[in-house]
Specification:
The strands form five sheets. The chain has a seven-stranded mixed β-sheet with strand order 2-12-11-10-7-3-4. The chain has nine helices and 15 strands. It has two domains: 241 residues, Aspartate Aminotransferase, domain 2; 99 residues, Aspartate Aminotransferase, domain 1, CATH 3.90.1150. With 360 residues, it is α/β, with parallel strands linked by helices. Its main location: cytoplasm. This is Phosphoserine aminotransferase. Catalyzes the reversible conversion of 3-phosphohydroxypyruvate to phosphoserine and of 3-hydroxy-2-oxo-4-phosphonooxybutanoate to phosphohydroxythreonine.
C-alpha cells in the first residue's frame, strides 16, 4: 500500500498542506510557545485570526457587504432548528423542497418550531432526477424557502437555483460549499457544517443577509440567535478554537490555489473521470440522471450486496478508504471533495477496473 486515499463523506480528508502546517504550529503557534488551542479566544492574536478568516472567506465567495458571516457550533442539525427560530415571521410558515435524506430531515426538525409545507422535487424512475424548480407563484406566502443543493447519501446535486421570486432562499450547503461558484446575493441564508470542504467537524458557517437578523422569536436560545451571535463576533461562549484555526488555514490554502474557480475546474475534472468510467462499465452503475450527478459524492453499485461488500473490503486493502455507501442507500460512495487529489480518483478507477476484470 504505497498511498492511502480517504473517500469519507465526512469527516472528510483535508488538504495535506494544511495538516502539515497545523502539525508544525501545533505546540508553537505565532511564536507563543503554546498551541492555538491554549490561547484566549478573545486575545489579540486569536481575534486577528478571526478577522482574517472572515475576510478570506468573504473574498473566496465574493460575499456582499450586507451579509454577516457567523462561525457557530451544533453542525447543520443545529441550524435545522435555528433557522425557523430566526426566520419565521409574519407569514408564519416555510416551504421545504426535499430531494433526499438531509433536506427531509431539516423539514422534520423545522416542524417542531413552525408550520412547514413540503414539496418533493425528486422524480424517481430508473434514475433519480430533480424535477420542477419554479416556485415563484407560491413562494411569496412563505417566510423562506429551504433546500439542500447536494444530497451526500444519494449523490444528487441541484445546479440550477430554485426560482422563488422575491422570497428568502435558504440553502444547506454542508457538502458542496466552496466546491463551485455561486452568487451569494441570490440567497437569504447559507449554512454548512465544516467537515466536508471547510475544516474539521465542530464548527458551522452561516452566511446571513443583514435584514434577516434581529427577528428571532423571543424564546430563541441566545446560542441560536443570529443577532446575539453577530454582535458577539460568534463568541457568546468559547468557540471551537482549533476547528476555527484549521478553517482559517483552509481558506488561505484555497486562495493560494486560485480560489473557487480553480476548485470548480478540478472538481469537474475529477467527477467527469469517475462518471465516464461508470458509464462504460458493465459491472457498476450509477442511478442519478446526468444533469443531477453530484460533483462531491459519487454513488455506484454492482447490484449485488455480497459483491459490494467484497469491493469495499478489497478497496480498503488497496489503500482506498471509506467507500461503503450510507446505510440508508447501501452500495458504494466515493466522496471527492476539494481536498481529494485527482491521483486519488485515478487510483480508485484503476482498482475498479481490476475488480471488474476479476469479478465481472
Amino acid at each position: 500500500m504505497s498511498q492511502v486515499f480517504n473517500f469519507s463523506a465526512g469527516p472528510a480528508m483535508m488538504p495535506k498542506a494544511v495538516l502539515e502546517q497545523a502539525q508544525q504550529e501545533f505546540v508553537n503557534w505565532q511564536d507563543q510557545q503554546t498551541s492555538v488551542m491554549e490561547v484566549s479566544h478573545r486575545g489579540k492574536l486569536f481575534m486577528q485570526l478571526v478577522g482574517e478568516s472572515v475576510a478570506d472567506f468573504r473574498e473566496l465567495y465574493r460575499i456582499p457587504a450586507n451579509y454577516q458571516i457567523l462561525f457557530l457550533q451544533g453542525g447543520a442539525r443545529g441550524q435545522f432548528a435555528a433557522i425557523p427560530m430566526n426566520l419565521i415571521g409574519e407569514k408564519g410558515k416555510a416551504l421545504y423542497l426535499t430531494g433526499g435524506h438531509w433536506s427531509a430531515t431539516a423539514a422534520k426538525e423545522a416542524r417542531l418550531f413552525a408550520e412547514i409545507d413540503e414539496i418533493n422535487i425528486l422524480e424517481q424512475s430508473d434514475e433519480s432526477r430533480v424535477g420542477k424548480l419554479d416556485f415563484s407563484e407560491i413562494a411569496d406566502q412563505y417566510d423562506y424557502v429551504h433546500y439542500c443543493p447536494n444530497e451526500t447519501i444519494s449523490g444528487v446535486e441541484i445546479f440550477d437555483l430554485p426560482n422563488v421570486g422575491n422570497a428568502v432562499l435558504v440553502a444547506d450547503m454542508s457538502s458542496n460549499i466552496l466546491s463551485r461558484e455561486i452568487d451569494v446575493s441570490k440567497f437569504g441564508l447559507i449554512y454548512a457544517g465544516a467537515q466536508k470542504n471547510l475544516g474539521p467537524a465542530g464548527i458551522t458557517i452561516v452566511i446571513v443577509r443583514e435584514d434577516l437578523i434581529g427577528h428571532a422569536r423571543k424564546e430563541t436560545p441566545s446560542i441560536w440567535n443570529y443577532e446575539v451571535q453577530s454582535k458577539s463576533d460568534s463568541m457568546i461562549n468559547t468557540p471551537p478554537t482549533f476547528a476555527w484555526y484549521l478553517c482559517s488555514l483552509v481558506f488561505k490554502h484555497l486562495l493560494a490555489q486560485g480560489g473557487i474557480q480553480a476548485m470548480e475546474r478540478r472538481n469537474r475534472e475529477k467527477a467527469a473521470l469517475l462518471y465516464d468510467y461508470l458509464d462504460q462499465s458493465k459491472l457498476y452503475r450509477n442511478t442519478v440522471a446526468k444533469q443531477n450527478r453530484s460533483l462531491m459524492n459519487v454513488t455506484f453499485t454492482t447490484g449485488d450486496e455480497g459483491l459490494n461488500a467484497k469491493f469495499v473490503a478489497e478497496a480498503l486493502e488497496n489503500g482506498l478508504q471509506a467507500l461503503k455507501g450510507h446505510k440508508v442507500l447501501g452500495g458504494m460512495r466515493a466522496s471527492i471533495y476539494n481536498a481529494m487529489p485527482i491521483d486519488g480518483v485515478q487510483a480508485l478507477i484503476a482498482f475498479m477496473q481490476k475488480f471488474e476484470r476479476e469479478n465481472g
